[in-house]
């Protein structure tokens, strides 16, 4: 369990929103999104702030380095999900992505990129955001689930995942594109790949029931197994409880798989046993954040870059 892995980053970026609310501009194609009419907007925002804080503190206690940035604006309701607008890659590379919804395009922020340049070794930044002008979108590691070992980019076709942009990313970053269709129980396309798929070092969670093409489904399973991973099939009900929206990180005492308390409760003992052969499960209550249709994995932008110097502490708040 202590063996380090290129799949599991040691550091993450988080955005702590001060005015969180489910995004009305993304509700049309995000079936995981919901509303809470029993609480006021202020109560929801306050609870979301606390959930982000507790997640950041919990990761830091586990030995993960957490860079927290504040979002005090009201114009970016989904800013808590930074993994959609940028990703980082070994060798010193950063990608910036084109976003489907207009108010999500405002989430990109230079201070995050400048922090990465200052704290980590960055060679180049490739900015795909100009593709928005042509209505071409690729929402980062929401649209793609990346196998950093096998160099495969798994991606579900949707409004948020354009095949041209995917091919361009894969050419630049040396990934093999593997695009497929996946639908929910009503036949609606899954909006982001990372709600039905999580790739760890020794295992992969996959919503096999949501991939209607049987041959494509088996091809994905085979490709994952070729890298030595055990594929854990998760049900539609488990995916609806965000069991697929997990991420493996490198903690101070080995790898951890971070997921929501709701997701953790949906897993059965056999599935938990397979995961815990490789990593410790680390659940957090983010039920308010989940109103926006994403969960823990969406909240964490992994940093696959080399540090310039070792961190003196694990919880790092950006200067105001």
Automatic annotation (TrEMBL):
NCBIfam families: citrull_CtlX (NF046062). Keywords: Transferase. GO terms for molecular function: transferase activity. It holds the Pfam family DDAH_eukar. InterPro entries: Amdntrnsf_FN0238. SUPFAM superfamilies: Pentein. This is Amidinotransferase.
């Amino acid at each position: 369990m202590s063996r380090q892995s290129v799949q599991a980053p040691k550091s993450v970026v988080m955005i702590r929103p001060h005015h969180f609310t489910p995004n009305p501009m993304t509700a049309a194609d995000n079936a995981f999104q919901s509303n809470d009419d029993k609480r006021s907007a202020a109560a929801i925002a306050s609870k979301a702030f606390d959930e982000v804080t507790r997640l950041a503190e919990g990761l830091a206690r586990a030995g993960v380095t957490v860079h927290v940035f504040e979002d005090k604006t009201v114009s970016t309701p989904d800013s808590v999900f930074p993994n959609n607008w940028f990703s980082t890659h070994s060798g010193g590379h950063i990608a910036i992505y084109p976003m489907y919804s207009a108010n999500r395009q405002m989430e990109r922020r230079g201070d995050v990129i400048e922090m990465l340049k200052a704290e980590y070794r960055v060679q180049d930044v490739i900015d795909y955001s100009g593709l928005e002008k042509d209505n071409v979108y690729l929402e980062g590691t929401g649209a793609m689930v990346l196998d950093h070992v096998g160099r495969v980019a798994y991606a579900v076709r949707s409004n948020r995942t354009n095949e041209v942009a995917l091919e361009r990313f894969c050419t630049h970053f040396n990934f093999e594109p593997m695009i497929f269709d996946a639908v929910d129980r009503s036949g609606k396309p899954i909006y982001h790949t990372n709600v039905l798929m999580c790739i760890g070092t020794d295992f992969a969670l996959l919503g096999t029931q949501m991939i209607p093409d049987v041959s494509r489904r088996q091809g994905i399973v085979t490709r994952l197994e070729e890298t030595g991973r055990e594929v854990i099939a998760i049900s539609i009900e488990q995916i609806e409880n965000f069991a697929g929206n997990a991420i493996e990180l490198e903690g101070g005492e080995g790898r951890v798989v971070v997921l929501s308390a709701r997701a953790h409760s949906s897993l059965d003992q056999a599935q938990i046993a397979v995961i815990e052969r490789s990593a410790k499960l680390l659940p957090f209550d983010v039920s308010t954040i989940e109103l926006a249709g994403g969960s823990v994995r969406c909240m964490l932008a992994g940093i696959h870059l080399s540090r310039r110097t070792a961190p003196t502490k694990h919880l790092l708040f950006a200067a105001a």
